[in-house]
Design a protein that fits this description.
The protein is mostly beta strands. Strands 35, 37, 40, 42, 45 and 47 form a 6-stranded antiparallel sheet that branches. Strands 36-41-46-43-44 form a 5-stranded antiparallel sheet, with no helix packed on it. The chain has a 4-stranded antiparallel sheet with strand order 1-2-3-4, with no helix packed on it.
C-alpha cells in the first residue's frame, strides 16, 4: 500500500494497496490489533492518501486529480458524498481544520499550489486561496500537516514551509527552512515529510538527500494585508491589479470584485506598489504590518492616457517591407494580435506606456521576439526579420493535421503536461530558447495520461512546402517528444515516425519507439537533407504518431523546426574527434580542448548562427586549451566550427548559449 491512517476511534484505513483499484481498506484495531477485523472496502477508484475524522474520509485521488468526500458512517458500505478537482489536478494529500469548516490540499506536480477550501457545506464547497512558495520555480509541494493555525508543508527541494492559515482566504508564509540549499526547482528530491506533533514542540523533517532535521518554530504569526482597488475616475472595481509588498515575496492580484489578500512573515514598515495596464502605477509608503493582524489598505488608481503605437516589419537583408507578417505585442495586461499591411505596417490605436514583448514572424522568415519599453514619444518601432525556413509555432503558418485516431490529434498550443506513474506522458512545456510557449502536441487537453492520447490509429502532422534550393548544404533541425507506456496487452509497441519528402520521394529520418533514448523529454535532431534525398523547392516534413494494437498510451510533440545552411566545405554533423567543448550549454566561458594540436600548429574557430552568420571568430590560435568568452552572444542555439591550418573543417558541434 501507499499509506495508512488510524482515526481517533482506532479504525485503520489503508490507501493505494494492490487490492482492486487501490481504494480504501477499513479495519478495526480495537479488539485484536494483531489480527484486525476487516469492516469494509471503498474501491470505486484509486486513493493515494486520506484523512479521517468522525464519519468523514477525505480521500486524495492523485491520478484522478480530485479530492473525494466519503461518508464512512456505515463501514461496510462507505458512500461518496461529493468530489472536487484541485488546482493542478494531481491531488496528493489533504488536511481539514479541527472544526471541519476548512480544508487544505497539495498537488504533487511542478508549480503546483497549496490550496484552501470552505468545506462547511458539502453541497457548496468553494476554493478560497492558493499558495506557492517560489512562484514560477517549478518547485513541488508534497504533504501538508496542520497544527493549530500553522500548516507545515514538506516542499521537496524547497525544504520545510510553514503557512499561517488564520485567514483561510489569505494564506501567508510564516516560516521556512531549506533542508536542500543546493537544490531548487522541479523534481522529487529534498524534503519528503515533516511532522509537527511531538510533545516537545520540535518539528522533525526528513530530507531524502541529507537526512533527518530537528527544527524549532517560534509560532509567530504572519502579517496580513488586504484591501480594495478602484478606478479614481469612476469608482469602478478593478480586477487584475498587481499588488506587491516591495522587497518581499508578498505579491498578488485583485479579484473580480477588486479585492486583494496578501502578507509577509516579518513585521515591519513597507512600501506597497499597485500596478495595472492602462493606469498610473501607485506606490504607498510607510505601510505598517504587524504579526497576527490584518492591515486594510484601499487604493484608487488614476487612468493613464492612451496613444497610438505604430510599427513596421522589414526584411533584414534588403530593408523591404514584409506584408502579411504576424505580430503579437503583449505584456501581462494587454495582448494585441496584428497582421502587417501591404507596406509592412501595423498600428494599435489605443496603446499604453509600459514594457512589452513583440513577436513577429512569417513563413519563409525567422520568427523574432524581443522586449521593448514604450512611451507616448517612442515613435515607430521597426522589426527586422531574416529570411529562412523556421517555425517555433508562435504563429499558425499552415501546418495540417490529419488522423485516423479518434483522440490525440495534433494541436498547436501551450503544452499541458500529463503524468503516468511518475513519467511525463505529454510534455508540460515547450523547448527552451524559442519565442513564446507554443508547440505541436498530440492531445493537449491535460488531465490524466489516457484522457486524450493517440488511440487506435494515427495522428499526422504535415508542414507547409518549403524551398531549400537556395541553400548550399541544407540541414533540417527539429525538437521532438515521444512517450509510450501503460496498457495491458504486452510491451508498449507504438511509434513516432518523422519523414521528409522532396515532392517525388519520401524517406524516414526517424522511427522512434519505446526503446529509443530520450523518452519523456525534448530531443534535438539535425540531419543533412542530401544524405537522404535530393533537396528541392517542394520539401515537406511529416510527423506520424501511431497507436498500434494492442493499445498503449502514446503521446508526441514537435517544436522549433528550421532549415540551416552549413556553407563551409568539409562539414559533417557526425564528425567526432578528440576535441572537447564544455560546459555546453554555457552562459559565459566555454573551454575548447584540442589535445592533438602539436607545438607550432594553429587552428581557427568560428561560432555561427543557424543561418550561417559568423558572430565570433578566433583565428590562428596555438593553445591546446582555449577559454572562449561567449557572454556577449544572445541566448540561443549556435554552431561552433573548428578548422585546421589549411582551412579544412575538423570539428562541428552545436553550442547552446543560456
Amino acid at each position: 500500500a501507499h499509506t495508512l491512517y488510524i482515526d481517533e476511534n482506532g479504525i485503520l484505513y489503508i490507501f493505494g494497496s494492490e487490492y482492486g483499484q487501490g481504494g480504501a481498506l477499513i479495519y478495526d484495531l480495537n479488539t485484536d490489533p494483531e489480527n484486525p477485523v476487516e469492516l469494509g472496502v471503498f474501491d470505486d477508484y484509486y486513493i493515494h492518501d486520506g484523512f479521517v475524522r468522525g464519519d468523514t474520509l477525505w480521500a486524495s485521488c492523485v491520478y484522478g486529480g480530485f479530492l473525494s468526500v466519503i461518508d464512512v458512517t456505515d463501514k461496510a458500505n462507505p458512500a461518496e458524498v461529493t468530489t472536487f478537482n484541485t488546482p493542478s489536478n494531481f491531488t496528493h494529500n489533504s488536511w481539514p481544520t479541527a472544526n471541519n469548516n476548512y480544508l487544505f490540499t497539495t498537488d504533487e506536480v511542478s508549480n503546483a499550489y497549496v490550496a484552501s477550501y470552505d468545506v462547511s457545506d458539502f453541497g457548496n464547497i468553494s476554493e478560497l486561496d492558493r499558495f506557492q512558495h517560489y512562484p514560477g520555480s517549478n518547485s513541488v509541494p508534497h504533504n501538508a500537516h496542520l497544527l493549530g493555525n500553522f500548516l507545515f508543508v514538506s516542499y521537496y527541494k524547497d525544504g520545510v514551509v510553514v503557512i499561517d492559515i488564520s485567514n483561510p482566504d489569505n494564506l501567508v508564509e510564516s516560516g521556512f527552512y531549506d533542508t536542500a540549499p543546493t537544490m531548487s526547482g522541479d523534481g522529487f528530491n529534498g524534503c519528503w515529510g515533516v511532522y509537527p506533533y511531538l510533545p516537545s514542540g520540535n518539528i522533525v523533517a526528513s530530507d531524502m538527500a541529507s537526512g533527518l532535521y530537528i527544527l524549532g518554530f517560534n509560532n509567530t504569526q504572519a502579517c496580513f494585508l488586504e484591501g480594495t482597488v478602484t478606478d479614481f475616475s469612476n469608482g469602478n472595481l478593478l480586477n487584475g491589479v498587481t499588488v506587491e509588498i516591495i522587497t518581499t515575496s508578498g505579491l498578488t492580484t485583485t479579484n473580480l470584485t477588486g479585492d486583494y489578500n496578501t502578507g509577509f512573515a516579518n513585521a515591519n514598515t513597507y512600501s506597497v506598489q499597485f500596478s495595472k495596464g492602462g493606469y498610473i502605477t501607485q506606490t504607498i509608503n510607510n505601510v505598517v504590518l504587524t504579526s497576527g493582524n490584518t492591515t486594510i489598505l484601499d487604493v484608487q488608481l488614476v487612468p493613464d492616457i492612451p496613444f497610438a503605437f505604430t510599427g513596421q516589419v522589414i526584411d533584414e537583408a534588403t530593408g523591404n517591407p514584409i506584408p502579411d507578417a504576424f505580430v503579437k505585442v503583449h505584456n501581462d495586461d494587454f495582448t494585441f494580435n496584428l497582421t502587417t499591411d501591404a507596406n509592412g505596417n501595423f498600428i494599435v490605436s489605443q496603446f499604453y506606456a509600459g514594457n512589452y514583448e513583440i513577436v513577429a514572424g512569417k513563413w519563409g522568415h525567422i520568427t523574432t521576439c524581443d522586449n521593448y519599453a514604450f512611451t507616448s514619444t517612442s515613435g515607430t518601432t521597426v522589426v527586422e526579420l531574416a529570411k529562412g525556413i523556421y517555425d517555433d509555432f508562435s504563429f499558425n503558418f499552415g501546418w495540417t493535421e490529419t488522423n485516423t485516431s479518434p483522440t490525440g490529434q495534433w494541436e498547436r498550443g501551450v503544452p499541458m503536461g500529463t503524468d503516468y506513474n511518475g513519467d511525463e506522458a505529454n510534455a508540460g512545456a515547450d523547448v527552451n530558447n524559442d519565442c513564446m510557449d507554443m508547440a505541436y502536441i498530440t492531445g493537449n487537453d491535460g488531465g490524466s495520461a489516457g484522457d486524450d492520447d493517440v488511440d487506435d490509429g494515427n495522428a499526422i502532422l504535415t508542414s507547409p512546402a518549403f524551398d531549400v534550393t537556395t541553400y548550399t548544404e541544407p540541414y533540417i533541425y527539429y525538437s521532438r517528444w515521444f512517450f509510450n507506456g501503460g496498457g495491458n496487452g504486452g510491451a508498449p509497441n507504438d511509434s513516432l515516425i518523422i519523414q521528409i519528402s522532396n515532392g517525388q520521394q519520401t524517406v524516414i529520418l526517424e522511427n522512434i519507439s519505446v526503446t529509443t533514448p530520450g523518452m519523456s523529454s525534448w530531443v534535438d535532431k539535425l540531419f543533412k537533407i542530401s544524405d537522404y534525398l535530393t533537396p528541392s523547392a517542394t520539401m515537406t516534413l511529416k510527423a506520424t504518431a501511431t497507436d498500434y494494437t494492442p493499445g498503449h498510451l502514446a503521446e508526441a510533440g514537435l517544436d522549433k523546426f528550421y532549415i540551416t545552411d552549413m556553407m563551409q566545405p568539409g562539414f559533417n554533423e557526425n564528425t567526432k574527434s578528440e576535441i572537447l567543448i564544455y560546459p555546453n550549454p554555457s552562459n559565459e566561458i566555454v573551454t575548447i580542448v584540442n589535445p592533438s594540436l602539436a607545438n607550432g600548429q594553429t587552428s581557427s574557430l568560428e561560432i555561427l548562427t543557424l543561418t550561417g552568420q559568423v558572430v565570433l571568430q578566433t583565428l590562428n590560435f596555438k593553445l591546446q586549451t582555449l577559454n572562449l568568452n561567449i557572454s556577449g552572444l544572445n541566448s540561443g542555439i549556435y554552431f561552433i566550427k573548428i578548422s585546421d591550418s589549411k582551412g579544412e573543417t575538423i570539428h562541428v558541434e552545436k553550442l547552446i548559449k543560456n
